[in-house]
Amino acid sequence: MRTLLMGIALLLAAPAGAATQGVGSLDGVPIIDALDVGDVATGVQRFWFRAGPTPIGQPWLVPVVVIRGAQPGPRLMLTAGIHGDELNGIAVLHRLATTIDPATLAGTVTLVPGLNPPGLLQSTRQWAVDWSRSAPNLNREMPGKIGGSAIADFAGRLWNRLIRPNADTAVDLHTQSRGTAYMMYAFASTPRTRRMAELVAPDIIKMDKGDKGTVENTATDDGVPAITLELGRPEQFDDVMIARAESGLRNLMRDLKMLPGAVTPPPASLFVANDIIAARASRAGWARLLLPLGALVKKGQPIAEVRDAFGTLLETVAAPVDGRINMITTDPRADQGGTIARILWWSADPACANGC
Ligand SMILES: [Zn+2]
User: Fold this and answer.
1) 134 and 80 within one domain
2) At 217, which CATH number?
3) Left, alpha or beta for 243 (phi > 0: left; psi -120 to 50: alpha)?
4) How far does the centroid of ligand 1 lie from the alpha carbon of residue 41, in Å?
5) Which residue range(s) make up the domain with 225?
6) CA of 236 to the centre of ligand 1 (A)
7) DSSP state of 201
8) Is the pLDDT of residue 257 over 70?
C-alpha cells in the first residue's frame, strides 16, 4: 500500500509537462494517458493505461506493471496479448510482475499483460470487436497514428505514450493462433536480436525480416532491439511453456545486468533457421499428422495424410525441404491448399543471413 500511495503522490506532484500523465484512479490504481518510467517510484507500481475511446463511450484500459529497480539500469519492455487468442505470454508477465524483487533489480521492467482488450474478450487474433479474419491486425499497425482511424489511434497511443518512450530493449510475447500450434520459437532480425533470442533459449530461432507494423520490427527499426517470442498453443495457459519463457527472460535480464547471477549459455540443441516453407494439402479433407511438432524431416518424407469423408486416402503430404517442423495444424479439417505444417530450414544464400 505504501509504495502504491507513493506512486500516486508522485503522479499528483509531477510538474506540468512531465511525461507521465495521471488522469484519475480506479480501485486505487492510477489511470494514465502517458507513461515515463523515469517518473515512477522505486518498487512495483500498477497502472491502467487509457488507450482511447470505445464505440460505447467507455475507454479501453490496458494493464501496466512497472517494476522500478533500486539501482539504475536499462529499461526492458515486455508486452503480451496483442493477438487476443494468444495467452501464455500474459501468464509469463503475471509471474514476473509478482516475483521480480525491485531491491535486486537494476533498471526498469515494464510489463503490459494484455495489449488487445477487444481481441482478448472475443478470443480472436484480430483487434476489432469482430470475429472475422479480415478484421484488422494490431500487430501490423505500429507506430499507429493518434487521431487516425480507431485502430491507428489505439496503436498510436500504445506506441507513442507507453511502449516506445519506455523501451531500450523489447520482447513481444505471442503463441500460434486458433487451430494451430508452435514450438517455443523466437523471431529475430539482426545479429544483436539473435543474441537476445538465444539467451531466452527457445527451441527454434527464425531469422526473419518481419512484417511492417509489428511491435518487434517497429522497435528494432527505431533502434530498440526487439524480438517476438512465440510460446506454443493458443487459448490456454501452458505451465511448461510459461516456466520456460520466464526462465529465459530472466536470463536475458541477467545478460543486460538487470538481475544478478550468471548468464546461462544457449542450449546446444537450439535450431536456427532463416527460411520457412508451408507443407500444404492439395486436396480438401481430413488431415492426420504422421509426425509431431518439432520433428526433423527430410525432403519428401511423409508429414500427413488426407482422407475423404469416407476415410479413403486422398493424398500424402510430404516435407518440401530438409528442416524442422515448427508449426502444425491442430484442426484436422483441411482446406484445399491449406497449410498442414510449416518447415523451417537454413538457406545458405548469403542474402538470407538475417532472413530470406
Ligand atoms: Zn501473435
Assistant:
1) yes
2) 3.40.630.10
3) alpha
4) 32
5) 2-255
6) 14
7) -
8) yes
pLDDT recorded at residue 353: 84
43, 211, 353 from 71: Cα distances, Å: 11, 36, 38
- Both 186 and 115 in one domain: the answer is yes
Helix (H, G, I), strand (E, B) or coil at 238: coil
Query: For the chain, how big is the Rg over CA atoms in Å?
Result: 21
Instruction: Report pLDDT digits (tens) over 184-221.
Output: 999 999 999 999 999 999 999 999 999 999 999 999 99
- Distance between CA atoms of 106 and 281, rounded to whole angstroms? 51
Residue 188 CA to ligand 1 center (angstroms) comes to 15
- Distance between Cα 137 and ligand 1 center (Å): 9
Q: To the nearest whole number, what is the mean pLDDT of the chain? A: 93
Q: What is the CATH number of the domain that holds 289?
A: 2.40.50.100
Q: Separation of 207 CA from ligand 1 center, angstroms?
A: 17
CA of 177 to the centre of ligand 1 (A): 7
d(CA 233, CA 286): 21
CA distance 296 to 183: 13
Centre of ligand 1 to C-alpha 83, Å, is: 5
Closest residue by Cα to residue 252 from 196, 335, 202: 196
CA atoms within 13 A on the CB side of 300: 0
Count of the separate structural domains present in the chain: 2
User: CA-to-CA distance for 254 and 239, rounded, in angstroms?
Assistant: 23
Q: Which pTM was predicted?
A: 0.93
pLDDT band at 343 (very low <50, low <70, confident <90, very high): very high
Number of C-beta neighbours around residue 18 at 10 A? 15
pLDDT in tens, 3-19: 444 444 444 444 334 48
* Residues with a beta carbon under 5 angstroms from ion ligand 1: 83, 86, 174
CA 216 / ligand 1 centre spacing (Å): 11
122 alpha carbon – ligand 1 mean position (Å):
15
Ligand 1 centroid from CA 84, angstroms? 8
Cα gap 123→145, rounded to integer Å: 25
* Average pLDDT of the residues in 263-280: 94
d(CA 228, ligand 1 centre) in Å: 9
